[in-house]
Protein backbone atom coordinates (compact mmCIF):
# COMPACT_ATOMS: atom_id res chain seq x y z
CA UNK A 1 0.00 0.00 0.00
CA UNK A 2 1.42 3.37 -1.03
CA UNK A 3 0.82 6.83 0.33
CA UNK A 4 -2.21 7.48 -1.89
CA UNK A 5 -4.02 4.46 -0.45
CA UNK A 6 -4.39 6.29 2.87
CA UNK A 7 -6.22 9.31 1.34
CA UNK A 8 -10.02 9.29 1.48
CA UNK A 9 -12.63 11.79 0.31
CA UNK A 10 -13.46 14.36 2.96
CA UNK A 11 -10.67 13.09 5.18
CA UNK A 12 -7.12 14.09 5.91
CA UNK A 13 -3.98 12.66 4.45
CA UNK A 14 -2.20 10.21 6.72
CA UNK A 15 0.90 8.69 5.14
CA UNK A 16 1.30 4.97 5.44
CA UNK A 17 4.38 3.16 6.65
CA UNK A 18 7.49 3.90 4.68
CA UNK A 19 9.51 1.19 3.12
CA UNK A 20 11.76 -0.40 5.68
CA UNK A 21 10.34 1.83 8.43
CA UNK A 22 7.43 2.28 10.76
CA UNK A 23 4.50 4.66 10.75
CA UNK A 24 5.17 8.00 12.43
CA UNK A 25 3.62 8.67 15.82
CA UNK A 26 0.21 10.44 15.87
CA UNK A 27 1.58 13.10 18.21
CA UNK A 28 4.21 14.04 15.63
CA UNK A 29 1.56 14.54 12.91
CA UNK A 30 -1.25 16.37 14.74
CA UNK A 31 -0.09 17.84 18.04
CA UNK A 32 -2.78 18.56 20.59
CA UNK A 33 -4.02 22.16 20.57
CA UNK A 34 -6.39 21.94 23.59
CA UNK A 35 -5.64 24.57 26.25
CA UNK A 36 -4.02 23.43 29.45
CA UNK A 37 -6.28 23.26 32.48
CA UNK A 38 -5.22 25.83 35.07
CA UNK A 39 -5.43 24.82 38.75
CA UNK A 40 -8.37 26.15 40.75
CA UNK A 41 -7.14 28.79 43.23
CA UNK A 42 -7.67 27.82 46.84
CA UNK A 43 -9.00 30.38 49.35
CA UNK A 44 -6.34 31.70 51.64
CA UNK A 45 -6.59 32.88 55.21
CA UNK A 46 -8.90 31.91 58.04
CA UNK A 47 -12.66 31.78 57.44
CA UNK A 48 -14.67 34.72 58.78
CA UNK A 49 -16.54 33.94 61.97
CA UNK A 50 -20.29 34.18 61.71
CA UNK A 51 -22.03 36.78 63.86
CA UNK A 52 -25.17 35.60 65.63
CA UNK A 53 -26.01 38.61 67.83
CA UNK A 54 -24.79 41.99 69.13
CA UNK A 55 -25.34 41.56 72.84
CA UNK A 56 -22.02 43.16 73.79
CA UNK A 57 -22.73 46.30 71.77
CA UNK A 58 -26.16 46.81 73.34
CA UNK A 59 -24.86 46.06 76.84
CA UNK A 60 -22.21 48.76 76.45
CA UNK A 61 -24.68 51.21 74.94
CA UNK A 62 -27.06 50.62 77.84
CA UNK A 63 -24.28 51.45 80.29
CA UNK A 64 -24.48 48.03 81.94
CA UNK A 65 -21.22 46.59 83.23
CA UNK A 66 -20.27 42.93 83.03
CA UNK A 67 -20.61 42.65 86.80
CA UNK A 68 -24.11 44.17 86.77
CA UNK A 69 -25.19 41.92 83.91
CA UNK A 70 -23.93 38.86 85.77
CA UNK A 71 -25.78 39.93 88.90
CA UNK A 72 -29.04 40.49 87.01
CA UNK A 73 -28.89 37.09 85.32
CA UNK A 74 -27.43 35.21 88.27
CA UNK A 75 -24.48 33.83 86.31
CA UNK A 76 -20.68 34.18 86.66
CA UNK A 77 -18.92 37.04 84.89
CA UNK A 78 -16.91 34.54 82.84
CA UNK A 79 -20.17 33.24 81.40
CA UNK A 80 -21.28 36.78 80.55
CA UNK A 81 -18.04 37.44 78.64
CA UNK A 82 -18.34 34.12 76.83
CA UNK A 83 -21.99 34.54 75.84
CA UNK A 84 -21.71 38.15 74.66
CA UNK A 85 -19.15 37.28 71.99
CA UNK A 86 -20.80 37.85 68.58
CA UNK A 87 -19.91 34.35 67.37
CA UNK A 88 -21.41 32.60 70.42
CA UNK A 89 -24.33 30.44 69.27
CA UNK A 90 -26.79 30.88 72.14
CA UNK A 91 -29.98 28.99 72.75
CA UNK A 92 -33.39 30.66 72.79
CA UNK A 93 -33.48 30.47 76.58
CA UNK A 94 -30.13 32.27 76.80
CA UNK A 95 -31.31 35.01 74.44
CA UNK A 96 -34.48 35.54 76.47
CA UNK A 97 -32.39 35.78 79.63
CA UNK A 98 -30.24 38.47 78.00
CA UNK A 99 -33.31 40.25 76.66
CA UNK A 100 -34.77 40.50 80.16
CA UNK A 101 -31.47 41.70 81.63
CA UNK A 102 -30.93 44.39 78.99
CA UNK A 103 -34.63 45.32 78.82
CA UNK A 104 -34.64 45.60 75.03
CA UNK A 105 -36.73 43.91 72.32
CA UNK A 106 -35.42 40.47 71.42
CA UNK A 107 -35.11 41.43 67.75
CA UNK A 108 -32.47 44.04 68.63
CA UNK A 109 -30.21 41.26 69.86
CA UNK A 110 -30.50 39.27 66.65
CA UNK A 111 -30.28 41.75 63.78
CA UNK A 112 -27.06 42.37 61.89
CA UNK A 113 -24.40 44.49 63.50
CA UNK A 114 -24.75 47.15 60.80
CA UNK A 115 -28.49 47.56 61.34
CA UNK A 116 -29.86 50.46 63.39
CA UNK A 117 -31.20 49.93 66.88
CA UNK A 118 -34.90 50.28 67.49
CA UNK A 119 -36.39 53.55 68.72
CA UNK A 120 -37.01 52.32 72.32
CA UNK A 121 -33.39 51.24 72.69
CA UNK A 122 -32.08 54.54 71.33
CA UNK A 123 -34.42 56.52 73.59
CA UNK A 124 -33.35 54.56 76.66
CA UNK A 125 -29.69 55.14 75.79
CA UNK A 126 -30.32 58.90 75.68
CA UNK A 127 -32.13 58.86 79.03
CA UNK A 128 -29.27 56.80 80.46
CA UNK A 129 -26.65 59.34 79.38
CA UNK A 130 -28.76 62.14 80.82
CA UNK A 131 -29.09 60.36 84.17
CA UNK A 132 -25.35 59.71 84.35
CA UNK A 133 -24.75 63.42 83.77
CA UNK A 134 -27.26 64.31 86.48
CA UNK A 135 -25.59 61.93 88.94
CA UNK A 136 -22.21 63.47 88.10
CA UNK A 137 -23.58 66.95 88.88
CA UNK A 138 -25.02 65.75 92.18
CA UNK A 139 -21.70 64.21 93.21
CA UNK A 140 -19.64 67.24 92.21
CA UNK A 141 -18.77 70.12 94.50
CA UNK A 142 -21.00 72.50 92.61
CA UNK A 143 -22.98 75.36 94.05
CA UNK A 144 -26.23 74.86 95.89
CA UNK A 145 -28.23 76.07 92.91
CA UNK A 146 -26.63 73.56 90.56
CA UNK A 147 -27.19 70.73 93.03
CA UNK A 148 -30.84 71.69 93.43
CA UNK A 149 -31.26 71.79 89.64
CA UNK A 150 -29.65 68.35 89.33
CA UNK A 151 -32.05 66.92 91.90
CA UNK A 152 -34.99 68.33 89.97
CA UNK A 153 -33.69 66.78 86.74
CA UNK A 154 -33.25 63.46 88.51
CA UNK A 155 -36.89 63.46 89.56
CA UNK A 156 -37.99 64.22 86.01
CA UNK A 157 -35.92 61.38 84.58
CA UNK A 158 -37.18 58.90 87.17
CA UNK A 159 -40.76 59.80 86.32
CA UNK A 160 -40.11 58.51 82.81
CA UNK A 161 -37.75 55.62 83.62
CA UNK A 162 -37.75 54.58 87.28
CA UNK A 163 -35.32 51.72 86.53
CA UNK A 164 -32.52 54.27 86.09
CA UNK A 165 -32.45 55.07 89.80
CA UNK A 166 -29.41 52.85 90.40
CA UNK A 167 -27.39 54.32 87.52
CA UNK A 168 -23.97 55.58 88.52
CA UNK A 169 -22.30 58.80 87.40
CA UNK A 170 -19.76 59.09 84.63
CA UNK A 171 -16.26 58.06 85.61
CA UNK A 172 -14.52 61.18 86.84
CA UNK A 173 -11.38 62.28 85.04
CA UNK A 174 -8.83 64.44 86.83
CA UNK A 175 -9.26 66.31 90.07
CA UNK A 176 -12.68 67.34 91.32
CA UNK A 177 -13.48 71.02 91.34
CA UNK A 178 -13.88 72.98 94.52
CA UNK A 179 -16.82 75.21 95.31
CA UNK A 180 -14.81 78.25 94.23
CA UNK A 181 -14.17 76.77 90.78
CA UNK A 182 -17.41 74.97 90.08
CA UNK A 183 -17.05 75.52 86.34
CA UNK A 184 -19.27 76.89 83.64
CA UNK A 185 -22.31 74.89 84.73
CA UNK A 186 -22.63 77.15 87.76
CA UNK A 187 -22.50 80.26 85.60
CA UNK A 188 -24.95 79.07 82.93
CA UNK A 189 -28.43 78.26 84.26
CA UNK A 190 -30.08 75.05 83.05
CA UNK A 191 -33.50 75.47 81.50
CA UNK A 192 -36.48 73.54 82.83
CA UNK A 193 -36.91 71.89 79.44
CA UNK A 194 -33.37 70.51 79.47
CA UNK A 195 -34.52 66.91 79.89
CA UNK A 196 -36.97 67.01 77.01
CA UNK A 197 -34.59 68.95 74.76
CA UNK A 198 -31.89 66.31 75.20
CA UNK A 199 -34.12 63.68 73.58
CA UNK A 200 -34.88 65.62 70.41
UniProtKB/TrEMBL annotation:
Boundaries of every HTH cro/C1-type domain copy = 55-109
Q: Which domain of life is it from?
A: Bacteria
Q: Which Pfam families match?
A: HTH_3
- Comp. bias intervals (Basic and acidic residues): 177-190
Q: Which CDD domains match?
A: HTH_XRE
SMART domains found in the cross-reference section: HTH_XRE
Q: What is this protein called?
A: HTH cro/C1-type domain-containing protein
Q: Which organism is it from?
A: Botrimarina hoheduenensis
Q: What is the lineage of its organism?
A: Bacteria, Pseudomonadati, Planctomycetota, Planctomycetia, Pirellulales
Amino acid sequence: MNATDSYTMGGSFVPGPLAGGTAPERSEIAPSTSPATSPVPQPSGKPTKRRFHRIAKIRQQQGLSVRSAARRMGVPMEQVRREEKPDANLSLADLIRWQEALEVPLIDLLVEDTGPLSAPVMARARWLRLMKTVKALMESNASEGVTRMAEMLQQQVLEVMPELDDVTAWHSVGQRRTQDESGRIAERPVSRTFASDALR
